[in-house]
Structure formats: structure tokens, C-alpha cells
Amino acid sequence: MNVVFSRVDYAQVGTTSHGCLRVMKEHSAQANENEGKKSKKPKSCDKIIVGGQNGILLCLERKNGDTNIVYKTLQDLYIYGVDMFLCGRNSFYHFHDCVEKNSYICADQINDVLCLPITEGGWVGRGITPVIEGSHLAYEVLLNEIPNVLHLFMNDGGFNKQKVLYGTRNGKIGLVDLSPTEGIICLEIDTKSFSAVTAIDCYRILDSSGSPDVIVGKEDGLIEIYTVDELDTLNFRQLYQCEESITGMECGKVASDHFNEIVVCTYTGWVFALTTEPLVLGETAVGGRNEIAQEQQKQAPQLEVKVQQLKSELEDLENKVREERDRYQELAKSQNPNDGFVFAKRCQGGFNGCGEEFRRCFCYSIRVWVRQRIISSLSVPSRHHKDGDAHKKYRRTVWNTENICCTQTAAYNLSGNWF
């Protein structure tokens, strides 16, 4: 039986990059010891940490149906106790209790970093492709595709504390066992599309009593949920289409401590949650009334005030847009008609695919209105074609899109003969 998800928007933080979102859990050892005992303090929910491309770091929380900013201020960052691992484009730094301990310069671009938990007889401080021990290269793991994101298997490395999930740029997810001497690829499977995997998390979202599920976020907006059996095999269960490029994703209980949520951040900065909480809750058997329904009734007057504030803000924005449009038209008339206007807009895109099926997936994200999408592709015969290169054909496909949202991510599957 599939779980029904409902989307709830929390905030918009601006353009974001890969690996920008984390969910800070509100569970402690003291809370586990006092489990089952009555406490006067109300239960606190999880918090959301998200960073934008403008360098601002935000900590968000949900209270009484509102999104509150707790504090406001790196692409690759991992924290383990008092150890902090930072990565630039080609550099790796290890800080222990705010003191630099190790560093490493990588010949290739670094996409992600993580640290395995410390266990007796184990070793720590490893990444994947390559694996680093201290300031030295221990070994490299050769993968079939380019890895794009890493995550500890079952959030702790599995039973031996040294297994890592990885997602590739062509839409595959795999499991690798990082032993002290070499890395062994346990499995690698295809997902439901060729788009790049941008986020992975392990969380009990389908069955609260079983093992954690594997939730995968992708560049084309797909969120796929996989269950894990006793043999550590991933089995697909269901998916959700967000229609926006996903840059960060984690699971937790942000709005309510009774319902699980998949917290998602998109390229255009939208932070929202896919919650298992029903939008309309009926009466419960306890007292014949629902506490959540009563709370919503108390908040009704506040919602009306907020709606009026949003209406006034919307009118102000419409006036500003009208003024800018008039100013642009006057500027266009005063200039030479042969001169053009070019506006610099940030765009994120990728071209991935599967060579075995001769298919490619083109995915892009842009924060402007798009009226036409033009894709030119070259159809070439295979190397063993009788006529060789004499019959190359160029194909040009145009999509007319007059009503496209400015935060939309478009993905296309292109098929044909490719080199």
C-alpha cells in the first residue's frame, strides 16, 4: 500500500546548489532515557538547515503553522562529533575541535564528502573515489559512472559500519563496502529516469517498525522510495514528482512530531515538505474531537490577517512589475532597433544518458519565463552502417510553451543513434 503525500511549502531561500539542505534532529540520549515518563516540556520538532548560493545559511523551524527563522547567516560539508570535513572544488580539509589536522589536494573535482562512524577495530576519515586516510590516498574505487552524491547506508554504515550508498549522474544508485584495504561494489541498480541523483536519505517513511527506507531525490524532480530487504537489496515502492530540480532532501518531523515528512529544497530555492499528515482530519475517538482541528480553528483569525497582508504585498509587486515594464519599453524605444538586450540569467543543466539503450536525458532549470525550448540533435548512423557518414541528418525540435512557470524544471528523453 502506497503512502499518500501532501505538499506543504515552508519558505523560498533563493537559488541553491547540490547538498544544501539538512534536517537537524531533536533527539537526545536524555530523551531516550526518559521515554515513557511524563514530561512537562512540550516535544520539539526537527529543524531545517539550508544554504543558498548567495552564501546565506538559514535555520528554519515550524511553530503554530508558521515558518520561523532561528538564525540566518559550502557546498560540501560533513560533521562527525568534533570533527569537521570541508571540501572545495579540488581541496579537502579535516578540522578536529576547530584545529586543522589533515588536508588533501584532489586532481579531480570533488562532488561530495562523508565520514564513516568510528567502530572498534575500524578506521575512519574515508570518502569514495578516492578514499582518504589522514592526508594520504588509501585507494580508489572504480565505478561504472561518475558519482554525484554519497550517504551512509542505514545512516550508520550498515552492520559493519563501512557501507556507503552513492548516486550517479546518469540516474543509478549503488552500494559499496569500504574495507580497510579495498572497496567492493555490492550492488548498482537503475532508477526510474536517467536524470542525475542529487540527494539520498535513509528513513522509516513507509513502515515505522521496519528497517529504514532509502529515499532518492533527482535532478528532474523525481523522489523515489526503495525498501531494503535482509540481503541489503533495494526494491522500488513508489515515487513522487515535484516538477522542480531537487538540490537537497532529508527526512524528519518538522511540523509535527506525529507525522513523518520528506523535506525538499529545489534549485529555485523552494523549501517544502511531503508530509504523511492528512490535510483534512476527522474526529477522533478521544473526547469526540481532534486536537489538531481545534488548533486550526483557533488560528483562523490569524490566517485572515495573513491573507490580507499577502494581498497587499502582491499588489505592491504588481505595481513594481508594471513600472519596470514601462521603463523597459521606453528604453527599448530610445535605443537603436538593431541593438538587442541580453540579460544574464543563472541556468543549471545537464545531459546524461544510458549508452546501452542509445538514449540521453537533457534536464535544465532556469528562473525566468521560457516561451520556447529549442533542442537541436544530430542523428548519425552507427559505426557499422553501410553508408557511413554520408547520410547524417540534423533534427531540430521546438516546444512552444506560452504558459510556463518561472520555477519549472524541464526534462526530455532523446533517442536515436549516438556515438
Automatic annotation (TrEMBL):
Keyword match Isomerase: no
GO BP, sorted A to Z: cilium assembly; intracellular protein localization
Keyword entries, A-Z: Coiled coil
Name of one Pfam family that matches: Beta-prop_BBS7
CC annotations in GO: axoneme; BBSome; ciliary basal body; membrane; neuron projection
Source taxon at top rank: Eukaryota
Matching InterPro entries: Beta-prop_BBS7
Domain BBS7 beta-propeller: 74-276
Coiled-coil regions, chain positions: 293-334
PANTHER family: BARDET-BIEDL SYNDROME 7 PROTEIN
Protein name: BBS7 beta-propeller domain-containing protein
